[in-house]
Design goal:
The protein is α+β, with helices and mostly antiparallel strands and 159 residues long. The protein is built from two helices and nine strands, in the order αβββαββββββ. The strands form two sheets. It has a five-stranded mixed β-sheet, covered by helices on one side. A hairpin with a 4-residue loop joins strand 8 and strand 9. It is globular, with a radius of gyration of 20 Å.
């Protein structure tokens, strides 16, 4: 009888841990973020797509578009928040009038909790635009384009 009680005492917490782990996986959802640039003259744009918490601190870098690390400092708001440390994916710059779509898993707890999706942009020999486009990470904003104020024409996300 003691062996059964001991086995249950060990199995119950392990089983509960398994349920919690499965629940944690189910508590994130894929989010597709699309950034479309305006037509402009010049080289490809460097973009930082990232998420900030309600206090404006960096929660996660989603994507850095632009291959030359020496230009990442021109993504000034992201660079200040991250210290230049990239914790997301990187890739090529984005050309005039083109779109960049990235997918990321975002915890449900961040949605409708004051977090924001932000895009900084910069073009070589042109202006840098910190906070070019900012969208609240909220279910009410899903699928609704947010206008940019620089090189970004629109920022849209789908949950």
């Amino acid at each position: 009888m003691r062996h059964i009680a001991r086995a249950l005492a060990l199995a119950l917490p392990l089983g509960l841990a398994g349920v919690l782990a499965q629940g944690a996986e189910a508590e994130a959802r894929p989010v597709r973020i699309t950034t479309t640039l305006k037509p402009y003259g010049g080289d490809g744009a460097y973009l930082a797509i990232y998420i900030t918490d309600p206090q404006g601190k960096l929660a996660r870098t989603v994507r850095i578009a632009g291959g030359k690390a020496k230009y990442h400092k021109h993504l000034s708001a992201w660079n200040r928040l991250s210290g230049g440390r990239i914790d997301g994916a990187t890739g090529a710059s984005v050309g005039s009038g083109q779109s960049l779509t990235v997918s990321v898993e975002i915890a449900d707890a961040l949605i409708d909790a004051g977090y924001q999706i932000r895009v900084d942009s910069a073009v070589e020999n042109e202006n840098d635009v910190p906070g070019d486009a900012v969208a609240p990470l909220a279910t009410s904003g899903a699928g609704k384009p947010v206008a940019g104020r620089g090189y970004v024409k629109s920022l849209t996300f789908d949950l």
